Amino acid sequence: MESKNLAQTINPLYLLASLALGTIGAAAFNALRKGSSETAQHVFEENMSATASAPSSPKRPIKKHAINKLMAKNANENELVKELKNLEEITCEIERVSNLAYDLKLQVLPLNVNPMLGNSNYRSVFGGEGFLPETAFVNHDCYILQHPNFGPNDLLSRTKRWLRSGPRKHLLFSPDEVKAGIVVVGGLLPGLNVIIRELTMCLFYNYKVQNIFGAKYGYNGIYNNDWIKLDPKIVKTIHHQGGCYLGTARSKFDGEMIVDELAKNGINQVYLIGGLGCLKSAEQLHEIIKSRNLKISIVVIPKSIENEIPIIDKSFGFETAIEEAQNPLKAAYQETHSKKYSVGIVRLWGSHTGFLALNASLAFRSVNICLVPEFEFDVYGEKGLLQYVYQRLQHKGTCVIVVAEGAAASLRDCKINDKGRDASGNVKQGDIGLFLKNAILEFTREKGLNAEVKYIDPQYMVRAGKANSLDSKLCSQLAQNAIHASMAGFTGFAVGHVSNKTCMIPLNEMNSGNYANRITPSNISWQRLLAGTGQPSFINNEQDI
């Protein structure tokens, strides 16, 4: 009956086509109708066959460097195989994340089922496993857009697609073969202990990994073979403390030696927690490991108290730093409003970018001037900073200034000498806060104004505390998703939030230099700040620039 009705429906169309298009047009239409019927029959037969035997998807063109031959034996059963093959297809637009299956040129992947896969509708959470339904696992071809908002001139094809992170149904690593190493490099940041705890808890309870170790004091712990064994009893309450349970340090980087020590100790999963320098060193480690054909995954959980990490929405610990900065800002405000002709200066972290100074100022709402590294300014001159502060003191009697440490490099008409470099090679900039204090005192005294300047430097107080609730949640998500990806064999990537969704970002993209995270004049938060403070550019010859 259905076939008859279909024919009855098409025949009138055929007659109309004959009249409108002539014999050739009607013949073409008839051929199209015939092709459509054959296609419909083909799809029907495929669906019937799929219901009976569930064959694999039709093969599509594969990239030249793909090794799809190897995984054919269990491709129909192994979801990880399907995902890896999909990532290698020419038509796949997701940014490729390295996987040990490709790096090691494995012929057949093991069928390791994720311990968290539930066997029924009843989910037991007491053992830490068997509590996720199949729908909770990430399917292949899932991605996160770098820019979710599009305007009239924007094209979807131009935005990056990052691989979605989350638990995979099938794993490359068997839990009993994993020996994980956690390494924290660089400076302190709120949330480090939450990361360490969550990595340990997730590996131990969710994936049944028994061998979890932490390197004492960053890379130095690897060089000196100074590891401590971690378990839930040890890390149970460390998230209630600030600082870093494992200790951290800035040290020279020797990739070959690090890989030697990792291989000697049997570490096959490395979870690095660090900033821009760590991202670069992790990429080198990944390349060395790949060249040696070692089964070691490298994952970075990026951190930065000034929020300078590219691509991701924000670093963990950043929100806590904004919150901790409110107390010194309150102190500066109270000091300046308790005396006439008083200036309060607060220096915050931000050697390359002023996001912390900007957001702390927006949160406090009573800052009069905010200076950041992204925008140059003049100290002296008719439109310079000192003249503006002097005029404000005359009219308002008070002035609260927030300055990022990196603003020392943004002075146009004077210079503050650097204080050398730290162990990681980073420039130690001169104290911009102390410089401004002395400059304001000298300038106002020359003008006959008996001003007072209170300088507060709370940098180490801001970074040493424990994470607030928001950052604790963020840390937990990052740690868990780092493990999910590493257990599936992914390596050479950083895990982070993009558009508020966790994803995997290849280290070569993070280190490419194409995604510098800086404040721009059009930044909406910067525009809000200028609207609130009313501060000018502090540039004398602005009309000539």
TrEMBL record:
UniProt keyword list: Membrane, Transmembrane, Transmembrane helix
Q: Which Pfam families match?
A: PFK
- Residue ranges annotated as coiled coil are none
The residues covered by the Phosphofructokinase domain are 180-485
Out of the domains of life, which is the source?
Eukaryota
Protein name, UniProt field? Phosphofructokinase domain-containing protein
| Native source species | Paramecium octaurelia
Keyword Transmembrane listed? The answer is: yes
TM stretches of this protein: 12-32
Give an example GO molecular function. 6-phosphofructokinase activity
Do you know which PANTHER family this protein is assigned to?
ATP-DEPENDENT 6-PHOSPHOFRUCTOKINASE 1
